[in-house]
Amino acid sequence: MKIVAVCSLLMAILVGCGAKGDSYDNIMSKKTLVVGVSADYPPFEFHKTINGKDEIVGFDIDLANEIAKDLGVELKIDDMKFESLIGALNTDKLDMVISGMDPTPDRAKAVDFSDPYYLAEAGVIVRAADKDKYKTPEDLKGMKIGIQKGSTFENVISQIPEAQPELLAKVSDLVLALESNRVEAVIVEKPVAKAYATNRPELELSDAVLQPASDGYVIGFRKGSPKMVEAANKTIARLKSEGKLDEFITKATQMAEEQ
Questions:
Q1: What class is the 23-119+215-258 domain?
Q2: d(CA 71, CA 23)
Q3: Where are the domains positioned within the chain?
Q4: Model-level pTM?
């Protein structure tokens, strides 16, 4: 889903130089796993009122809970802007980042990656009245397209000829821009696009097909944390073998659609 601006990554690399030791040891010592998310991306991470209480839920949260459970520690969620996550990770404010993150080469210089746990497919949201008008990437040629700032869809948009990217910090703001005719389409992950389209009758999921930006989402850890990476990979492998990840994405999508 998301990439970080070059300057943000450079800062994350520089501050990370001062951090030492495998984050696994720190997590096990304090018995708490502090996880950073940007909770504006249903169904992966988003706010939902449950029994009158605001909670952060979603696919990534379910996965983080399983990692914490396998480690035998308490899970703490810290919600912040996506572009701030890696910097917070490398200054020890976070132990782990799970927020629809793609393993880009620049990002690999700043953090350690888990194995991929989810392959993102791009979804294109359009106004319902324009669904038959915008069926292919070529139909959107030269149009203003909404993209989340810091997302890998900044690269995917190049598949639309002469597209004009409109970068905003939150997906909810992008959807408002679409509804108010400030952009002609919004590109996000397909489950996210489906969730927004289902909840808003004035929106539709376009038939336009765009290729994935990467080989899948990964979890980020502070550089030099092989034990923590190994622990997370064991949880991911277990959940894949049990079919739990498919259950998580289905449940999270349903929760997002019920908002």
A1: alpha beta
A2: 13
A3: 23-119+215-258, 122-205
A4: 0.67
